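Polypeptide N-acetylgalactosaminyltransferase structure dump, as promised
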Amino acid sequence: MRILQVKKNRLIKLAAAVALLITVLYVLFSQTRKEGVSLRSFSSELRKEVPRLVKGLGNFEPPATKPKEGPGEQGKAHNLRDDQQNDASQSLSEYGMNMACSDEISLDRSIPDIRMPECKHWDYPQNLPKTSVIIVFHNEGWSVLMRTVHSVINRTPDSMLEEILLVDDFSSKENLKGKLESYIERFDGKVRLIRNKEREGLIRTRSRGAKEARGEVILFLDAHCEVNVNWLPPLLAPIYRDRTTMTVPVIDGIDHQTFEYRTVYQAGHHFRGIFEWGMLYKENELPSKEISKRDHNSEPYKSPTHAGGLFAIDRKYFLELGAYDPGLLVWGGENFELSFKIWQCGGSIEWVPCSRVGHVYRGFMPYNFGKLANKKKGPLILNNYKRVIETWFDDKYKEFFYTREPLARYLDTGDISQQLELKERLKCKSFQWYMENVAYDVFDKFPELPPNLHWGELHNVASQTCMDSMGHEPPALIGMSHCHGFGSNQLLRLNAKGQLGVGERCIDADIQGIKLVFCRLGTVGGPWEYDEATHTLLHRNHKKCAALHPQTFHLSLMPCDPINTYQQWVFNEIHPK
Ligand code: LR7
Ligand code: MN
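structure tokens r here:
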């Protein structure tokens, strides 16, 4: 009797187990099918390539949690009351972001998981390398910096996180001093803090962080980020497979006023990093040639460059590449230096759609460059660009940069012999190779530049004032103002194809007047013709000339009258001050 009872129990248990197994398999299978990914595709690909290395596989997806309620939870916008607006605007001007708003949002807040659904089904090796997350900061707002740290702690498998290394670039704000040491004690040694003895700028501070880090992989974040669900394994897997691959997450936006988390990318579309010839960072939709190289839309893909702030790289590899060029100062151009160096010297850059990190885009840069900039910020950044192009571009391409930024020719880059030596030693390929094989889509938007026929300040003979874009964004009328000799918004260029440019923008004219417009991507031509004898500036399509109104100072096209000094213009070349 008892035996029978036991058998019956066993049978029931067995049947239940079988039913459970079938349900689980069904759920898994239907999900996989629905989203078009075989559950193990990435890992089996990895296994083929590094069979001995892969010990086990893990998916690392966290269990689902109940949605939290509260200000800014689920990445929603948090709006302050009217009586808080003073604090809000005060903090906005001090930090470039609304710290009054940030301070009311939990450091552990939830953000929406906006990954492509198939991202949940990738498997990764269990024994991914340990990572030092390096966050350099200079006078950042406390709650924003700490939310960055908390998000990493909350959303990273402990086994992969060697440490979070905070590197203080000589901040002067009181609350970033002693309080920081005591606050990080709660992380039981996972968070380490080192401080610069003087201001080094973000570039040198990152190189220092890389040297001091203890992890096999280093991963940089700006000090105002929030990492999203399961962000790290997809960044580490490509590095694990090939240590010369650098990986970059997709960077979402966190609003600097409301801290709303939202993506800047259209679902399912992929972008990659490129540049224009003035070395401004740009993005381009992934060319079809790259799309067709992949089996799944959530797979990593190659990118010519990256924005700069957020990426992972094998620590030793980064140091073998000389870290960042130590001659680069404070801010700017280091993203290109590293990108060109990696690609030309045999490595590659991959963007990883399944890894997403939010970044607060500030309205303006709230800090100055300290002693490192004995001049204004502009020439310092341009100088960085010049070091980078003088090291990595071939002569033909250098000309495009000097055409787009004529003042750069006169800047002193300092000594780049060490950089050139490194390039030689690592047997790096030419820029031509890079443009043809990696960054070929740059040309679609930014073709080779014809030389400038004239450039400089554009003086009006009658008024002795200069055309000025006033720092506006298109569409806007071009203004006239006192000629200051610094270039920037008064530095105009007329190229051999008739395009009149100022910075990355173009100048055209319509019924309302002479205007700042977006240059037509993929073209380098324009409607203008300058007559050196009469000093008139003709608009070929309208067959009229650029004229200044003597009373209103409005700029417009008028029937050409070469004797009228209000229609006479002189390009005055200038030199850096
Ligand atoms: O002197 C400084 N010392 C620092 O430690 C100046 C800054 N910093 C810190 C700062 O606190 C922050 O944590 O360096 C980090 C980056 O400075 P940001 O946030 O002012 O830079 P950014 O976001 O305006 O600029 C982008 O370009 C820079 C060029 O040098 C860096 O590469 C930034 O990391 C980069 N940010 C991103 O790529 C995020 C995505 C933006 C886009 C597109
Ligand atoms: Mn930033």
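The longest strand covers residues 348-360.
lmk if u need the other ones
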